[in-house]
Design brief:
The protein has a single domain (2-227), classed as Phosphoglycerate mutase-like (Rossmann fold), CATH 3.40.50.1240. The longest helix has 20 residues, at 120-139. It is an alpha/beta fold. It has five helices and seven strands. A hairpin with a 6-residue loop joins strand 5 (182-188) and strand 6.
């Protein structure tokens, strides 16, 4: 049995409410840094031997406390970066009402793909490849070793949807992937024939979530949620 934990980054300092996507220059807030430290304090004593990260600043900063706790050098992997989005750089101060702006309609014709950004299938495929590579690296240290991949909400969520055999079309407000949460993929079998046994979910920093996210559907803290892949 080998576990690959998908860790979402912590809270970002973003007072203007910009959809930052892949843009550089967005760093963790003070609360985000505390969240990252909480994760390290929670899982730092596990047999984590490999750490793989997105190249964006908020992810590097989230991974830093865990890397220090485990004495690991993170491997930067472009495959676990945030998904592309044509709304990147815009502010959404009006929430969903922003999407009523006629200038956005030409991007919204196909929510299944989705038409406003990188296709879900493409995101899932690159994430799966990175996850399996992380698992292979962990196995070099023994059959019960673990790996952590630090990424972003959408890539982690579509990876989970794929693992559980669920369709990609979903309501973004109902993603079970809060800040600094862990979506853990439990594998069995050799490197050549990996078998996903189950998926678990937990929120080490659940009590530190911003009020809006803590009260959102499916994002409350508590005991790990567990599902077996279909």
């Amino acid at each position: 049995m080998t576990i690959v934990h998908l860790l979402r980054h912590g809270e970002v300092h973003n007072p203007e409410g910009v959809l930052y996507g892949r843009r550089p220059g967005f760093h963790l807030s003070e609360r985000g840094k505390a969240m990252a430290q909480r994760v390290a304090d929670t899982i730092g004593d596990r047999d984590i031997v490999h750490l793989r990260i997105s190249p964006l600043e908020r992810v590097r900063e989230t991974a830093a406390p865990l890397a220090a706790a485990r004495g690991l050098e993170p491997v930067v992997d472009e495959r676990v970066i945030e998904s592309e989005n044509c709304f990147e750089g815009r502010t959404f101060s009006n929430g969903p009402l922003t999407l009523l702006d006629p200038r956005t309609w030409r991007y919204l014709y196909n929510p299944f793909r989705p038409s406003w950004g990188e296709p879900y299938k493409q995101v899932s495929a690159r994430m799966r490849a990175a996850v399996l590579d992380a698992r292979a690296e962990a196995l070099k240290s023994g059959p019960d070793s673990e790996a952590v991949v630090v990424s972003h909400q959408l890539p982690i969520w579509v990876t989970r949807l794929s693992a559980e055999g669920r369709p990609f079309l979903h309501d973004p407000r109902k993603r079970q992937c809060s800040l600094c949460s862990l979506t853990s993929l439990h594998f069995d079998g050799p490197v050549e024939r990996p078998r996903l046994v189950k998926v678990t979910y937990s929120e080490p920093a659940g009590d530190m979530l911003p009020r809006a996210e803590a009260s959102a559907p499916f994002s409350a803290g508590g005991a790990p949620d567990e599902k077996k892949p279909t």
